[in-house]
Amino acid sequence: MTEQKPKIVGFCCERHGMDAVVLAARSGKQSDASVRLVQVPCTGRVDGLHILKALEDGADAVFVLGCLEKNCYYDTGSIEGRKRVGYVKQMLSEAGIEKERVEMFNAASTNAWAFPEAVAKMVEVARKLGPIGGGERQ
Amino acid sequence: MKAAVQVVFCKCCTEVPPLLSMEKLTKQATATNLVVSVVTADAVCDGKDVKRVVAEAKNKEVDRAVILACSKKDFNPALLEAYKRAGINEFLVDVVNLREEAVLPHASQPERAQAKAETMLKAAIDRVVTRSPLQRQSEDMKTKNVVIIGAGVAGRAAAEEAAKAGAHTVLLEKSGRSYKAPGVILTNSQLIAASGYGGNFQLKIKAGEKVEELGAAAVIVATGGGWTTLKGSLAKAVKEALPLYKFHEQMQSGAAPKGPVVFIDTPDPAGKALKVRDFTWDETLETALELKKKHPAVEVYVVFQEMRAMGLTELAYKEAAELGVRFVRYDRTGMPKVDQKNPGVVTVKDASQDQLLNLRFGTMVFASNPMNEDNKAIADALRIPMSTDGGIRRGSIQRGPVSTPRPGIFVCGSALFPKTRDVAKEEGEAAGALAGEFVKKGRIEYGGVVAQITSEKCSACLTCVRTCPYEAPFIGVASKAEIRVQACQGCGMCVGICPSKAIELLNFTDDIIGEEARTLLGGDF
């Protein structure tokens, strides 16, 4: 049963990211319900701390969804977001945690497939790796 | 402060009620003591329901609200406006997108969708309670000036449109040529420095020998392409070759061309320094056709790698071929070359007939040009990004096709990338209309969700100053960073990057984001 319900947190920017989520839903794309979306103004707002805290609070995987890098509403926001994600990945691998648990995705507001694809990928990662530390989820 | 929250359910979307149990959600909402009023509306986009909801809010002395409906962008702003009039702060009203986040994508898993919706409601109530009421401020624009850099086709079109909206247009023209356009034209002038933010820019302009200060509400960049510069191996071999732009001007003035004319798509056929642009096909066809019509005796060759005429310009291709313009297609196996020993002849392999041709020419015309070299200085002065090939880069398409990432600065015409006159004119009109609309408002609104600095924690490391694309943070008199609130767009990039954690984004603090993630993770779905 626990295998069926991984916990995934998605930090999603209010601009192209959120629009892609809305468009995906309207296009009739089905995605796994285990994703918790947290809206941020821009992926540049996402701090490494937020990702690490989410993992600490019980998330199996965390992803960040932002604008395309050359089409970001705040110009360089999604590039900053990618840098933070890369930094967290490095920290995780130093701590002995699989760095695949954290990922950055980019979407244009017209990409209906981007969000379901991101969810599918993260769910696969979370199912494969299980909870952090290999323990049973309560 | 005691919070009193109103929760509004919208039943408008037919997908929501059959999948989710409204009773359970209502029960969960009323279980929290902070929620004083729960209203179920048939459609919050409907005027009657808006009145009912707001009357209930006034009755129960509500100061925050959570609306469970659809996407915030589709949502009827009438309810938000009504809340504002009822004295509820606009930043304390939150819309939860139940339809697109919980219902539509999880239609096959109703139990999980229900649990997700309940958790989302809980998180939204928590979020709205922890947020603080913010105020938006406004500032008057000091001038109605719209400064347009470049008085070319796009610049003049922009001036016409901006003047219609009542803006005072000032055109800066690099050359000494004066054009007919509304407003003022400053010839021999260029932009050297700029400061400020959308609505109140301070520009430094070099007009002739004098350096002048000029206030501007909006700036339009219409520098055009590098029409007169040539770059590439063929341009080096043929010194007297002309760019298409110049050739067209000469032809318009009535001068007869010298000898047979060869149009080549690019002076750099190997494509190392210069790419062939799509506008060249249309412009070449039209110029060649015009030339053949004016001087039927002159031999005209069009040497090209591929010819992709757009739209109705294909008819020009047909007409030109019928009038006797010779089209020679080449590819990488036999690119056009000019031997130094025989300077009046270009050697090219015709790819469609696999035959080496020696074309004797009197005039050689190149269609592709590099980007305008002034773009760099202008982009540096206005702090707007450039594309990799030397043009001005436009901002996100959500801001509009002629907008830069900075509000109040617009870009049009060949400053973005080379294009035909018609397209440049239309872009100019669009940029002019947008700038006019921007200036017409007469004041700028700012504030709300913006960054705020705790001076005690700041170590003045300049990280925020370098990161911000809008120049909002600056080092103030006390050697600590400060935020120019008028310029802040509320993206929070400086907040995430600050190594001392001295900056926070109002209503999106680390605590609020972390707490929301924790609440959402607490749900079992």
Shape of chain B: elongated
CATH-defined topology of the largest domain in chain B: FAD/NAD(P)-binding domain
Number of strands of chain B: 26
Major β-sheet profile of chain A: 4 strands, parallel
Strand content of chain A: 15-25%
Record the strand order, biggest sheet of chain A.
Answer: 2-1-3-4
Quick one: overall form of chain A?
globular
Say what the CATH topology of chain A is. Answer: Rossmann fold
The overall pLDDT of chain B, averaged over residues, is 90
Query: Termini of chain A, distance in Å?
Result: 11 Å
Low-confidence stretches of chain B: none
- CATH first level of the largest domain in chain B: which class? Alpha Beta
Strand order of the largest sheet of chain B: 8-7-6-12-21
With helices defined by DSSP (H or I, 4 residues minimum), what is the helix count of chain A?
4
Radius of gyration of chain B: 31 Å
Mean pLDDT of chain A: 91
Spans of chain A of 5+ residues with little confidence (pLDDT < 50)? none
Summarize the structure.
The complex is a heterodimer of chains A (138) and B (525). With 138 residues, chain A is an alpha/beta fold.
What does this protein look like?
The complex is a heterodimer of chains A (138) and B (525). Chain A is built from four helices and four strands; from the N terminus they run βαβαβαβα. Chain A is of the alpha/beta class. Chain A has a single domain (2-134), classed as Rossmann fold (3-Layer(aba) Sandwich), CATH 3.40.50. Chain A is globular, with a radius of gyration of 14 Å. Chain A starts with 7 loop residues before the first strand and ends in a 9-residue tail after the last helix. The mean pLDDT of chain A is 91. Chain B is α/β, with parallel strands linked by helices. In chain B, 32% of the residues lie in helices and 23% in strands. In chain B, the strands form eight sheets. Chain B has a five-stranded parallel beta sheet with strand order 8-7-6-12-21, with helices on one face. A five-stranded parallel beta sheet of chain B has the order 13-20-14-15-16. Chain B has a four-stranded parallel beta sheet with strand order 2-1-3-4, sandwiched between helices. The mean pLDDT of chain B is 90. The chains are: A alpha/beta (138), B alpha/beta (525). Chains A and B meet through helix 1, strand 2, helix 2 and helix 3 of A and helix 5, helix 6, helix 15 and helix 16 of B.
